[in-house]
Each structure stands twice: as structure tokens, then as C-alpha cells.
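Q: Hi! First time doing this. I have a protein sequence and I read that you can turn it into a structure. Is that right? Here it is:
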Amino acid sequence: MFVHELIHQGKPDAMAIIDHKRRITYKDLQEAVRACRNRLYAAGVRQGDRVGIFSRNSAEYVYAYMAIASLGAISVPINFQLSNREIAYIIKDAGIRNLMTYEPLNLVDAIAQLRCDIRVTQHDIRVCGQPKAGIEDAPEPSGGFDEHYPCVIIYTSGTTGNPKGAVLSHRNLIANAEQMEMLHCKSEHNVLCVLPMYHCFGWTCSVLYPLYCGATIVILDAFTPKETISVIRQEKVTDLYIVPSICSLLTKLASKEDMASLRLVVSGGTTLPLKIEQDFMNKFGVDICEGYGLSETAPVVTMNPPGRAKVGSCGIVVKGSTGNWSMQPVTRFRKASPASSSSRARTSCSATGICRMPPKTPCAAAGSIPAT
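A: Yes, that's right. Below is the predicted 3D structure, encoded as C-alpha cells:
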């Protein structure tokens, strides 16, 4: 399965996305993605091209990502909080020549300072899902395009200076969605996407996995306590993927009635303090399934199974993952010492390589792809 085929998982008349007041069915989603891919192809985007996405959470973000994937091009999500200098570095490193953005960016000086003459065409992501007259349907990708073809380059800072681009294939992302089946998402569930879509945790867990299940994605473009609590209650959100700071604020400001629709809460991104976890569970009567992952594994590596969550643990290794792991005596998960040459994780969702760079350490990345 390819990532863009996820938009066909739900019934045509079933709700795919709720974006504030907009209600978008799976049929609407498919039509918007088709319109976006035709726009991009007409603008010159071709198989293998790297296309940046610089935007807050929105339905249009999903349209753009899926359209890019369907053309055999490669998405490069960019943190919208980065400076122009940081954005320019990613553009140069990934070889981006087309950028989907919700507002024009003045990157001329920043790119020039990198002694780079790359020219970037910016496209208004806000209209990407609207049909455009006078353009033909884009063709399907040509030979060599299979599930192992690169789908996305996720930039992660790591510990060695400039951010590195982890290259993930269609198979990597689909495999991680399949591995999350232990969370039992169903088509009737409403999954809140409040974590940023440019981050692999928010994207895989709050977008790809719900689509894989034919469920509904409820989108918020940013976290504000009042709006988030209101949306959880009004839209009867069942599945919630958050970070510890959001968990803490919900515990302080929400009532038990506000959270009554929740069946699943997953925390990731950083270690969940025991007090925050216990306070949340005591107030709302819902377990928190803490997990662990990294960009290079698309990202989920471990997860607490619902109904068997262990306080203070980030859970068991998901199906299909192998590696040299160890457990501390009480609850905390840790990876084996980096000093050990056998310390590595291998999963069916492990990155295929690092953009422009050969691997320097014994990790999941097995190769590299050059910038165009």
C-alpha cells in the first residue's frame, strides 16, 4: 500500500476530516487531493522532486501531503516556527524547489547567505484543494515507483550540529500505522490532531493511523486549553495524542464531563512525569498509554497496550521491531549503551537513509539519497 491510498480507506460518505466548521467526507478528501495533484503537476512537480510543506495544521496540509505522495514526489515538512536561515538550510539540504506555504516567505537573503542559487517556487496551500480550470489530470508515477520509494524527508536535530533529513518510504509509514493496531482505532472513532503535523508523532499517530482505520480526524491548528477542551467535548473526541505539558493543562482546566468521550490517551514526545500521569488518570478515569519513538522509525517503537498500561513505562516493543533493548529494574525503558556496536533498533518502519549523508553510526539508516 502507498501512503496516498489511505484516503480511500473510509466509506465515501463517512467523515474524514473536521477542520473547525468544515466537514470533509472521504469522497471530498479524494477530490481535493486530486485537484491538488493536478495543480502541482501543472506547476512542474515531477516524480522524485522534493516539495516543502510550511504550514500549520489544516485539511489543506493533508491534501498537499497526499497529492505530493501520489505524484511520486517527496514531502519535506518544515517546522513553521523556524527562522528564515533555518528554513533556507533545509531547502538547500533537501533540494527543495517547490514550497507549499500559507503565507509568502522572503527567503532570498537567507538562501543567498548559503551561497546557493536554488530557486524556490512558492504555492499557496490555502487553495491547493480547489479545482483549477484549464489543467489536465496528472499521470500516475512511472516505473520504479513502489512501496519502498521515498515518501517524506523528516528533519531531526539529533546531536551532531545541523539537522539531518531522515528519509522514510511509503512502506515505512504504512508499516508503522499497521503496528499501531494494538490501539484498536475504528471507523467510528474521532481522533484529535492538535500536535503539529510537521512532527512525525503528530502526523503518523493523529493523521495516518486514523486514515488507515477509516476514522475521523479532528484538526486544531494550535493548542489552546479552552478551545481544545471545547472541541474534545463538542466533537466527542475518542482518541487523544498529546505531550506531557498538554496532559498537565487538561488535568488542571478540564472537567471530567469535558473528557467523558475519551477512550484512548497516548503521550509521547518526551518522558511523562509520574505525577502528571497519575493526576490525569485519577481525575478522568482514563489510562494514559505512554509510548516511545524517533523520527527515523516513523516514529513509534514502543507503546503501552490499552487496558494494560503500566504507569511509568513507555510500553512494549511494537510488533515487527527488533533490537538490543533493556529494562531498568522498576519501569523506565532505555536503549542499550551507545558504546555497544550492537546497540541498534531495526523495524519495518526504519528510515531508508539520511538525505545527502552516508550513515556515520550503527543505526537504522542504511543508505542515503542525494539532493537534486
